[in-house]
Design a protein that fits this description.
alpha+beta; three-stranded antiparallel β-sheet; 34% helix; 22% strand
């Protein structure tokens, strides 16, 4: 659901990336997949789980889908696929009953598609992603989820959305090459020039008028107990924001981050310097088997990165780059998670 860049150091980028695959998506059952004991977690889920029921006028509960003829659940009219309408007879009500009243723990696991592992037979393809075992009394004694706890990507490609991000000293652009052939300083200058243009466009458009950054509006939302619709409306209804977007001084979608950076900067040069370093450091770096990143990437390009984590990562990134031998290979990878 999210794309991000990773600069892989070393010629064998495929081998370097493999320890970080998301097993649930790749299905590659290799040495990086581990058996994680989730017995306590699953038992807690089972204890808290409930089934929807319907209660008849006499007060007796019936599990949903089991009182045929008394009520049904059907799809709505054609064109509204996926929407369901519950039809419960007059005098009946909906309720909840503990799932454990209906199923044993092992039955509940089976219904969740977690297969039983018979130690006499051994694991098969059905147990690839997880299983449970029982003791001599037939009671569940262990639930296992098989996963790669170090997962960072579910698929990747060279370059991808960031194709030709590397600038070479001979003027070429590309996705991979030797450290000594890459014009790292030229890449910094490119981003510095872009940052200067952004800063100037924004400051000219603001022209001294008061404006709240998205971070400030978001903080006010939390303090005042408002919802996200309120925050988006307050932010976007500012005349300065409307003018900035209309004049293309900031991007309609990424402009909040651009504006926040300018407003937070001590001065023009500090903004330019930071943006140049950050925007050339990629989101993550894979070096000597270690994955380094600004923050953990989640779905829809959300992450837990902070200004501090971004600054620390970018500083370390450039220290690493400056220390690499000239004949080392680096490759730009578009990772997806």
């Amino acid at each position: 659901m999210s794309h991000f860049t990773c600069l892989v150091v070393g010629a064998d980028y495929e081998a370097a990336l493999q320890p970080f695959h998301e097993f649930e998506c790749t299905g590659t059952n290799d040495q990086y997949v581990q058996d994680i004991d989730t017995t306590d977690e699953k038992r807690a889920e089972y204890e808290a789980d409930t089934d929807t029921t319907v209660v008849d006028p006499a007060g007796e509960s019936h599990y949903m889908f089991t009182a045929a003829g008394d009520f049904d659940v059907r799809f709505c009219a054609p064109g509204e696929f996926g929407r369901k309408e519950k039809r419960i007879p007059e005098g009946w009500t909906e309720g909840e009953r503990p799932t454990k009243d209906r199923f044993t723990f092992s039955e509940w696991l089976a219904n969740e598609s977690t297969p039983l592992l018979d130690p006499k037979i051994g694991a098969g393809e059905d147990h690839k992603f997880g299983y449970y075992t029982v003791n001599a009394a037939g009671e569940v004694d262990k639930v296992v989820r098989r996963t790669n706890p170090n997962k960072k990507w579910d698929w990747w490609q060279i370059g991808g959305r960031w194709s030709n991000k590397l600038l070479f000293k001979d003027g070429r652009r590309g996705d991979a090459g030797l450290v000594g052939d890459i014009d790292w300083d030229g890449m910094l200058l490119e981003q510095a020039s872009k940052a200067a243009a952004v800063f100037d466009r924004i400051t000219v458009a603001i022209a001294g008028r008061p404006v709240e950054s998205w971070e400030q509006v978001r903080a006010r939302r939390e303090t005042e107990g408002k919802d996200w619709d309120w925050a988006r409306t307050v932010y976007n209804d500012q005349q300065v924001i409307k003018d900035l977007v209309a004049s293309e001084a900031i991007d309609k979608w990424d402009g909040a981050e651009q504006l926040s950076g300018v407003l937070a900067a001590a001065d023009r040069q500090s903004y330019i310097d930071r943006e140049a370093i950050v925007n050339t450091s990629f989101w993550s770096m894979l070096h000597n088997g270690q994955w380094h990143e600004r923050g953990r990437m989640g779905w829809w390009a959300t992450s837990d990165a902070t200004d501090a984590s971004i600054n620390d990562y970018s500083t370390s990134f450039w220290a690493t780059i400056r220390g690499l031998p000239a004949d080392e290979t680096v490759t730009v990878v578009d990772c997806h998670i």
